[in-house]
Amino acid sequence: MSFIRKINKGDSTYLAKVESYREDGKVRQRHLEYIGKEENGKPVVKVDINKVNVSSVKRYMDIEILHRLSLELGLPKLLGNYHKPLLAMIYAHLLQKNSIRQLPEWIEHTTICDSLQCETISTKDLYESLTNLENIEFETIEKSLISFWRKLEPGDSNTVVLDVTDTYFSGSTTECKPRRGKDGNISKLLQIGLVVSFKNGFPLLHRTYDGNVNNVKIFEDLLKEISDNGLRGIILDRGFFSKINIKDLKQLGMQVIVGVKQTVALQKQFLNTIDRSEIYVKKHQVVLKETIVYTKSFRYLGGKLIAIYNPALEVLKRDKILSGDEKGKNIRYVGYSLVYHNTEYTEAEVIKKYFEKDVVERAFKKMKGPLSLRPIRVWLRRHVVAHVKVCYLSMTILSLLEYKSSKIKISGIDALKKMQYIYKVKLRHSDTKKEWDKVVTMGKTQEDLLKILKCSV
Question: What pLDDT does residue 173 have?
Fold first, then answer.
């Protein structure tokens, strides 16, 4: 039986393939071939470079990072029998902007199939995975992810931000009528309600709705799920405010910070009572990241209504009104906004939390930018909804990557870009027919990233 023998000569350790045999009753060793040297505890094979050919070159390290993160999140188990083509689509979604029909060819030039332990992934597999995604209990996936995020963000994981965005699609079998989007274009619209954690913007829940459902109804639909998942505090934009929603929040024992649209009744009841000289003083001042505001609280609906006065905004808006750009507006209330809350935070803490809730806006920018939410290039309604779920799952991986890469002050997208040129090269010896893999050289930043992500080449 042959084995590898270490031969120490000076400061070097050489490796040789030998076999044992018996001669004159003694065990001896026969040298079969020289293997190479041992460096840093690892064997380094000696080969004739003139007899080595490149068998294949595949995109490697960015794929490896995404796969490690998906394993950490538990996505293969959560996605069940359909996980291989779905994860392939999610990885491709983060790295490549091709259509589904073009993805199999791109996948062949990556190590995706090696990571997922499958031979090939076809266009049929990808389309079927979209259909099968409809059969997966997605609420179970979200519950598991919420539990995961809580371990990373224990201090403030129960406070969330909810917002809604819209996107266009061209589904031929849907009955949804064209509507005007936020950018003014008219097309078939799909709305996505997204709940993210306040501190790091981790995606927790999402649901899709037709374009004609208003924000108040979306919130009513999501509220019970938010509560059932143990999320006790929520921050909302003013489009979600209604007295019914406030009543429901109280019954569920939840705390809320929500913007309130000015009405004539609220202006008369509260804003008319404010003395400008009284509010515009140091003790009512709140310093935000980009501006300074002044506040005054009133009792309202079992909580407090905070009137926020922004002098800089007042000057800007007043000039627009006087120049005729915003006709019909009452100058008396320019510069004021309203926020309701039923928390134990101070006025300053409430205002800072409300105006620093841009984590969900950044999440939407990721969905519509790097995650290619818009436009949706699938036609069947179930595929449209499945595409949004793929975006959501892609965001979970990207959010975990950003959480880790932020330690060296690199965004998740930039981290993937820095890894995209680390390929795995398969080499083949023309005489021995032996094959082995070689990973291209990395730079310092790439090495630091791999240490943080606990990945090895």
Answer: 46
No. of helices (H) and no. of strands (E), the chain: 17, 17
Q: Using CA atoms, how far apart are residues 163 and 440, in angstroms rounded to an integer?
A: 43
**Which is nearest to 260 in space by CA: 226, 319, 306, 297?**
306
Phi, psi of 10 (to 5 degrees): 65, -125
d(C-alpha 214, C-alpha 219), whole Å: 9
Taking alpha carbons only, the member of 394, 382, 381 closest to residue 135 is: 382
Instruction: Give the whole-angstrom CA distance, residue 148 versus residue 197.
Output: 12
Give the three-class secondary structure for 254: coil
Q: Which residues of 359-382 are buried (b: 16+ CB within 10 A; e: fewer)?
A: bbeebbebbeebbbbbebebeebe
Higher pLDDT, 382 or 424: 424
Q: What tens digit of pLDDT does each residue of 132-153 get?
A: 888 889 999 999 999 999 888 7
CA distance linking residue 199 with residue 168, whole number of Å? 29
Name the DSSP class of 344: S
Q: Please state the length of the chain.
A: 457
